[in-house]
C-alpha cells in the first residue's frame, strides 16, 4: 500500500478538516498518483472533498464507524477487518491511503511507500502525520528541487520506502 500526504515543517497535515495549503502543483501530483487507483480515507476526509463527492476515476473507500453515513458511490467499511477483506480485491501497489490522521495512524504500518509533499513553512495544525524523516523504518529515496508556490512558500515532492528490518 501507499500513503500520500502534504505536510508542513512539523509534519502537520491539516486544521479544522482542511488542508494546510492548497498548492495547485500538489493537487496535480495527487491526481497523477491516484487516478485509476484505489483511495482509502476516513469519513471526515471524505466530507472535506469538493462537494463532498467521491474523487472521479478512482475507487473511493471510506472507513467509518458511522453506519448512518451513506454518501453513495463509495465503498463503505465499518472496521479494519472489513477494510482488509475489501482491499484483497486490489493490487497492493494500487492502494493509496489519503487521510486523515486517524486513518494514517491505523494503516501506516501496512504501507510500503509514501509520497510526501513537504511544504517548507510552519502552520497551525490539529492533525499530524508521523515524521518519516525521524522514523528508522522509513528511508527517503527521492526528492525534487524546492519549488516556489508563492512568496516565501516552497514545497518539494518526496518519496519514502519502508526499510526491510
Task: Tell me what the structure shows.
The protein contains four helices and twelve strands, in the order βββαβαββαβαβββββ. The protein has 165 residues and is an alpha/beta fold. The strands form two sheets. Strands 1, 4, 5, 6, 7, 8, 10, 11 and 12 form a nine-stranded mixed β-sheet that branches. The chain starts with a strand and ends with a strand. The model has no long low-confidence stretch (mean pLDDT 96).
Layout of strands and helices, then pairs:
Elements: E1 2-7, E2 12-15, E3 18-19, H1 24-34, E4 38-42, H2 43-48, E5 59-63, E6 75-77, H3 80-87, E7 95-99, H4 101-107, E8 113-119, E9 127-128, E10 138-143, E11 147-150, E12 153-162
Parallel strand pairs: 1-7, 1-8, 4-5, 4-7, 5-6
Antiparallel strand pairs: 2-3, 2-9, 8-12, 10-12, 11-12
Nearest-integer average pLDDT: 96
Series of H and E elements: EEEHEHEEHEHEEEEE
Helix content: 10-25%
The helix/strand class is alpha/beta
What characterizes the major β-sheet? 9 strands, mixed
Shape, principal axes of CA atoms: globular
Number of helices: 4
User: Which stretches are low in confidence, meaning pLDDT under 50 for 5 or more residues running?
Assistant: none
Feature tags:
165 residues, three-stranded antiparallel β-sheet, globular
Report a brief summary of the structure.
This protein is α/β, with parallel strands linked by helices. It has 4 helices and 12 strands, in the order E-E-E-H-E-H-E-E-H-E-H-E-E-E-E-E.
Amino acid at each position: 500500500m501507499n500513503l500520500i500526504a502534504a505536510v508542513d515543517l512539523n509534519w502537520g497535515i491539516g486544521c479544522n478538516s482542511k488542508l494546510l495549503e492548497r498548492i495547485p502543483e500538489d493537487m496535480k501530483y495527487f491526481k497523477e498518483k491516484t487516478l485509476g487507483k484505489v483511495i482509502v480515507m476516513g469519513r471526515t476526509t471524505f466530507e472535506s472533498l469538493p462537494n463532498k463527492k467521491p474523487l472521479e476515476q478512482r475507487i473511493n473507500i471510506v472507513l467509518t464507524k458511522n453506519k448512518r453515513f451513506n454518501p453513495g458511490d463509495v465503498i463503505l467499511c465499518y472496521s479494519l477487518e472489513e477494510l482488509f477483506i475489501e482491499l484483497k480485491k486490489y493490487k497492493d501497489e494500487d492502494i493509496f491511503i489519503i487521510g486523515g490522521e486517524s486513518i494514517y495512524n491505523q494503516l501506516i504500518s501496512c504501507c510500503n511507500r509514501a509520497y510526501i509533499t513537504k511544504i517548507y513553512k510552519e502552520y497551525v495544525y490539529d492533525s499530524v502525520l508521523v515524521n518519516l524523516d525521524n522514523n528508522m523504518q522509513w528511508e527517503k529515496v527521492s526528492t525534487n528541487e524546492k519549488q516556489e508556490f508563492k512568496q516565501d512558500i516552497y514545497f518539494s515532492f518526496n518519496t519514502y520506502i519502508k526499510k526491510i528490518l
